Every structure is written in structure tokens, then in C-alpha cells.
Amino acid sequence: MNPPTTTTAEPGRSPLAGRMGGHLQGAAAEHLGLVLVLALLVGMFGALSENFLSALTFTTLANQIPALTVVAVGMTLVLVIGGIDLSVGSVLALSGGILGVALTSWGLPLWLGALLALGVGLLAGIVNGWVTVAWAVPSFIVTLGMLEIARGSAYLVTASQSLYVGEPVQPLGAPTALGLSPTWFLAILLVAAGQVTLSRTIFGRYMIAIGTNEQAVRLSGIDPRPVKMIVFALVGVLAGLGGVFSVAYLETADPNAGIGIELAAIAAVVIGGTSLMGGRGSVVNSFLGVLIISVLQVGLAQIGASEPVKRVVTGAVIVLAVILDSYRHRFAPRGEVWRRLRKTPG
Known about the structure:
Blueprint: H1 15-48, H2 55-64, H3 66-80, H4 88-104, H5 110-134, H6 139-158, E1 163-164, H7 170-173, H8 182-200, H9 202-212, H10 214-219, H11 224-250, E2 252-253, H12 261-271, H13 283-302, H14 307-331, H15 334-343
Antiparallel strand pairs: 1-2
Helix pairs in contact: 1-13, 3-8, 3-11, 3-12, 3-13, 4-5, 4-6, 4-11, 5-6, 5-11, 8-9, 9-11, 9-15, 12-13, 12-14
């Protein structure tokens, strides 16, 4: 009879430390890969356009992305639990329309108008989550319906016209330090908060577990429904905040705002490594994906690419990202994530 096999750790290094080190190395490698892609794009467009490598280009790009960034944070969270939200662009437009009407027609201060906009986003998210959870309807269908409801409501609120807001939103949209707007700094804070929530809290562990194997979560005595409801509500609030950021940047409430932003957010999030199947995601990587998508769009515009060409390239990027995700999903054992979560104390 052979003696039992034992696994020994390096002197002074626990097995847990080894596993954590491997995880951190994998995350660092993924971050590095995305940064390299971003650097290659910047270098390529810098060589093709003499105006691309300038402070004006980078500050303009940075001030354009806060709305997409906060929407991508929400999209990351909902994809991690195995859902999706296609209504974020329409909810963004509706929230922006409410803010515009509140400031121009109702004479409300910016903070109160922004709260109303966030409340509209929260309501849309709660409805999406409630219908998805209560009737076990796929979130794809539910949010597709909300997409139409919110877009139609945006047209009704604004009478199908763009509302110029101007000075009341300048405290949020006007560039300050280093030419960056306050919305940019707020977006970065939300990226950090989202990453900490997903990777360092029990709620984040529940999200990953639900996306990995919801049935196993139920069998372990955890009710996934409140978690899913909260996630959809958060996505709605973040879409509402995206509406506030959009109005602050354009100084106009446009009922057509946010058209296609759900596709850009999905592309950015999947490029960042979040699985469309659920159970895996990183908010920081999603932000890097936002930067990649944004640099791609700005660079194409500077080299004279037409709008149809930009749409073709963006669509191709989405398809390639989904293909890469399918390979990542194929070679990553889903059960391993759940086993790690089961072993985590607390």
C-alpha cells in the first residue's frame, strides 16, 4: 500500500498565500494585457494622426467617458449575476430628461434635480429586478421592454425636443483641475467602489456565487432574489447617474441620448474579461475596456473614419470580445469558483 500523498508548502509560505498569490498574478496579467492593448491603440492612432497625442485629445476623451463608465460599472455587476440590462441607454435618456425639465421648467436646484433623476433610474431598476425575479422572466426580455418604455417616456417628458440647460449644470460638467470635470473624478470613485464591493465584500461573493451556480446558492440556504433585486436597482441608479453626467457634459437634455450605449458598455465589459455567462468580472477591467472603446472611437474620428465605419469597427470589436469570452469560459472550470466561495469564512 502506497503512503498517502501530502502537499507541502514552501517554507514560510502557506497554501492559502500561494493560492492568493496566483490569483493576484492572474489579475495583474489581465490588467497588463488590457493596458498593453490600450497603449497599442494610442500608439497606432498617434502615428496616424498628428493631433491625437495631445493634452486636448486626452482631456476631451476623459470628459466624454463618465456616463459610459458608470453605465459599464452597472453592466459589470448585472452580468456577474448572470443577467443583463438592455434598458440602460433609455433610462439614461429619461433621467437626463427629468433633470433637464427640473432645472429649466420647474426651477429646482441642481442637487434636487439630480436626486429626481437618480430616483427615476432607481424605479426603473426596481421594476426590472422585480419582474425578472417574481416571474422568473429572462432579464433580456424584461429590460428590452423597459428600453421601449423609458425611451418613449423620455420623448414625452421632453416633448421630443432637446432642452438646453446651460449654467445650472456647469458645476458638474465644467473642467477644473488638469482640465478634468468633476464627473470624471466621481466616475473614478464609483469604479473603485464597485471593485471593492465585488471583490472584497460578502455581497460581492454572493453575486459571484449566483452567477456561477444559482441553484447551488439556493441549496446552501441563501436566497438569491434579494441580491438580484439590489443589483438591478443599482444598475438603474447608475444609469440615472449616467443621465446626469450626460446632461452635465452636453449642457443639454436630449431624448435621443444613450442610444447604443448599452452595446458600448457590453463591449467594454466583455473586453475587460467579465463573462456573459456570469460568475466572473472586474470593474477595474471594465473601466480599461471603456478606455479601449473610447480611444478606438476618438482615434477613428481623428483619422477621418465615417460614422458607418466606426459602427462597423465597434460591432466587430463586440463580436471578437464575445468569441474571446467563449474561449475563456470554455477553459475556466465553473465549479472551482463555487468551491472557493464555499471555503471562504464569514
